[in-house]
């Protein structure tokens, strides 16, 4: 069956339908990872987006529940050059086609993804529609369409829960976190309480946390203003704090910096990052469409700790006086290189040492 990807600039790409028989719209973005399509599709940070995979063959090792980054995927659609109709892996439990059908997500294959990626790189991420029919007013309808905002409320939890362990107490503020973050905390025997994104500082501090982690999540950080007073109050209480991705951007906003939308974002597992203090370079997993404005750091209590080598964007921040830091990339990877997993060790040292952790962080940045 034919399926079409319509872009708001009038581009229409024709391919073959797979996945759910549904019409959907969202922001069309591209991911440069060669593997990890399941973790990508189930990453809540892709909520409301149609994912284009630049690698030409997707689905060849199937899908399995243990690899999901969330219980259910939140993306709007999947675009591939070729979808593997048969999966070959001993962990395989179902095909990509069946997985997308199960969750009501349409896919399109047979698309020239190199051409599509060039369009998105030159014109920027844009609205798109997956449909089985093209009408005379399809493009104008898409152009007039407003995509949903504040996807954080869609993908985050509504009620707090505990993940017991034997170590220090960590509160994870859920803006749409990946399960791999919890796995990294559990690997360090840290006790975790996960709370909704609207939880105020009073409630968080009443849990007597040894540390607070601001998770990743989808969309524009300016759609989450309710989190900023909480972040400021947690900092003021000198509770060690770590932010990841959206959490990094919210940490910046809470301390007076600004954020802006990137043309096509960073999505993939091969993004080179340099540590400012040491010059050390490593590869990272990333998934974000917004970034902290470097110029806006002037006059704030924040120092830049990491920089993206390709475009110079801010990849890490540290508070000058308080035990708090953040990274734009995903140190949990999954999928991706584990070069940056030491950020969790850094956070653990801050937690173990209380306020003294800020000094140890300063030695690196």
UniProtKB/TrEMBL annotation:
GO molecular function, one term: carbamoyl-phosphate synthase (glutamine-hydrolyzing) activity
Pathway the protein acts in: Pyrimidine metabolism; UMP biosynthesis via de novo pathway; (S)-dihydroorotate from bicarbonate: step 1/3; Amino-acid biosynthesis; L-arginine biosynthesis; carbamoyl phosphate from bicarbonate: step 1/1
UniProt EC number: 6.3.5.5
Active site: 245 (nucleophile), 330, 332
Keyword Amino-acid biosynthesis applies: yes
Keywords annotated in UniProt: Amino-acid biosynthesis, Arginine biosynthesis, ATP-binding, Glutamine amidotransferase, Ligase, Nucleotide-binding, Pyrimidine biosynthesis
CPSase: region residues: 1-168
Binding site for L-glutamine: 45, 217, 219, 246, 249, 287, 289-290
Entries under SUPFAM superfamilies matching the protein: Carbamoyl phosphate synthetase, small subunit N-terminal domain (SSF52021), Class I glutamine amidotransferase-like (SSF52317)
Sequence ranges assigned to domain Carbamoyl-phosphate synthase small subunit N-terminal in this UniProt record: 1-131
Principal EC category: ligase
PROSITE patterns: GATASE_TYPE_1
Any single biological process term in GO: glutamine metabolic process
Gene3D superfamilies: 3.40.50.880, Carbamoyl-phosphate synthase small subunit, N-terminal domain
Record's catalysed reaction(s): hydrogencarbonate + L-glutamine + 2 ATP + H2O = carbamoyl phosphate + L-glutamate + 2 ADP + phosphate + 2 H(+); L-glutamine + H2O = L-glutamate + NH4(+)
Subunit structure: Composed of two chains; the small (or glutamine) chain promotes the hydrolysis of glutamine to ammonia, which is used by the large (or ammonia) chain to synthesize carbamoyl phosphate. Tetramer of heterodimers (alpha,beta)4.
Protein family per UniProt: Belongs to the CarA family.
Functional description taken from the UniProt entry: Small subunit of the glutamine-dependent carbamoyl phosphate synthetase (CPSase). CPSase catalyzes the formation of carbamoyl phosphate from the ammonia moiety of glutamine, carbonate, and phosphate donated by ATP, constituting the first step of 2 biosynthetic pathways, one leading to arginine and/or urea and the other to pyrimidine nucleotides. The small subunit (glutamine amidotransferase) binds and cleaves glutamine to supply the large subunit with the substrate ammonia.
Name the UniProt record assigns to this protein: Carbamoyl phosphate synthase small chain
Organism: Lacticaseibacillus pantheris DSM 15945 = JCM 12539 = NBRC 106106
Lineage: Bacteria, Bacillati, Bacillota, Bacilli, Lactobacillales
Gene that this sequence comes from: carA
């Amino acid at each position: 069956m034919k399926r079409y990807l319509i872009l708001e600039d009038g581009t229409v790409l024709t391919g073959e339908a797979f996945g759910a028989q549904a019409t959907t719209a969202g922001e069309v973005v591209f991911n440069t990872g060669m593997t990890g399509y399941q973790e990508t599709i189930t990453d809540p940070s892709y909520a409301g987006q149609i994912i284009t995979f630049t690698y030409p063959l997707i689905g060849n090792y199937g899908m399995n529940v243990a690899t999901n980054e969330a219980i259910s995927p939140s993306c709007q659609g999947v675009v591939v050059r070729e979808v593997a109709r048969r999966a070959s892996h001993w962990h395989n439990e179902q095909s990509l086609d069946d997985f997308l059908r199960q969750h009501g997500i349409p896919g399109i294959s047979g698309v020239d993804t190199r051409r599509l990626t060039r369009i998105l790189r030159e014109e920027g991420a844009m609205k798109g529609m997956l449909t089985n029919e093209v009408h005379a007013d399809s493009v104008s309808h898409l152009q007039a369409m407003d995509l949903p905002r504040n996807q954080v409320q869609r993908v985050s939890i509504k009620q707090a829960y505990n993940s017991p362990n034997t170590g220090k107490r960590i509160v994870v503020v859920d803006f749409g976190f990946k399960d791999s973050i919890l796995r990294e905390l559990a690997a360090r025997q840290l006790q975790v309480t996960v709370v909704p994104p609207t939880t105020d500082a009073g409630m968080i501090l009443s849990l007597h946390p040894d540390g607070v982690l601001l998770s990743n999540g989808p969309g524009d950080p300016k759609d989450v203003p309710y989190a900023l007073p909480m972040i400021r109050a947690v900092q003021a209480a000198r509770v060690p704090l770590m932010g990841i991705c959206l959490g990094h951007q919210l940490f910046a906003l809470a301390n007076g910096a600004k954020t802006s939308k990137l043309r096509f974002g960073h999505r993939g597992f091969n993004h080179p990052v340099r540590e400012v203090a040491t010059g050390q370079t490593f590869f990272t997993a990333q998934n974000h469409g917004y970034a902290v404005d470097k110029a806006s750091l002037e006059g704030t209590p924040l120092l830049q700790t990491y920089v993206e080598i390709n475009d110079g964007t801010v990849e890490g921040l540290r508070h000058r006086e308080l035990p708090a830091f953040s990274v734009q990339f995903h140190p949990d990877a999954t999928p991706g290189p584990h070069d940056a997993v030491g950020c969790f060790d850094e956070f653990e040292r801050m937690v173990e040492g209380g306020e003294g952790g800020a000094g140890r962080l300063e030695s690196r940045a």
